């Protein structure tokens, strides 16, 4: 994943609503308003055409390399599986730590971190507990400091603890602020299981056409706590499958790739219930874009109850079963 200053990570919010509880159950639900166009998954699978391309051993090997890199990124000491808490802040000072006498009790780390103070103007001040060792952006912290939020152009301040195993940052979602805490010893990291996949299939590498929108267009992307963010929407990709045409609105995070957030008829019927993500190269000559649906991947909230997830916009809910890429993760949150 990328730095938390990107639209994708700013959109990602905690799983607290009923919708989220349904979506984050490992894909086991039978129905959901996130099931793109509804319908029976078995029937949809029968309707899928046979692969149009042979799947070579080299292709399978390339897919396996991607899968191994994907797992390595998820399970890094500060990867998505290291999340252990997301604590919303009310304005004013709060003591926090892992001991029960704190106003905000966290799952891991020092018994008493110190005091966090959210000012009315959005500034966040941290006063460390005396005798507790912290780093700030990898340098020793010597006293009270102001913490940058993840919407800052420089990125969030990283408050380190437990000899570098733990990292605390402050995130902003809408007009709300929260403490996001990661720890290398998180059970979701140490107990991580392999992600199940559909069989690698070269027939799911699809040539698509990129159709540009007028410059400056944005798309409202909702998250599961009910807030939305206007994200740059440079255009959409259009492709054909089984004689039908489909399109997915693309988001632009400022890098070399388009970011696609989509739902399809496998959601809750094999794949994760709240949709999947796909990164695609930006348009080449003639506006062509290759979509490798074998590399469709789960959002972070498929792996931890403390991650955050943007939801597929209505435009990206496909009446199509994409039987490729990551399936629903069976590991416990």
How does this model look, in words?
This protein is mainly beta. 12% of the residues lie in helices and 31% in strands. It has 5 helices and 19 strands. The protein has helices at 7-11, 18-23, 41-47, 57-74, 187-190, and strands at residues 83-89, 92-97, 104-105, 114-118, 124-128, 135-136, 139-140, 145-147, 159-161, 166-173, 176-183, 205-212, 218-222, 228-232, 235-241, 244-252, 257-262, 276-281, 288-292. The strands form 4 sheets. A 6-stranded antiparallel sheet has the order 1-11-10-9-6-7. Strands 18-17-16-15-12-19 form a 6-stranded antiparallel sheet, with no helix packed on it. A hairpin with a 2-residue loop joins strand 10 and strand 11 (176-183). The longest helix has 18 residues, at 57-74. The chain is elongated. Residues 1-5 and 13-47 have low confidence and may be disordered.
Helix content: 10-25%
Sheet/helix structural class = mainly beta
Largest sheet: 6 strands, antiparallel
* Ends distance: 19 Å
Radius of gyration: 21 Å
Annotation field: number of helices:
5
E-strand count = 19
What's the mean pLDDT score?
87
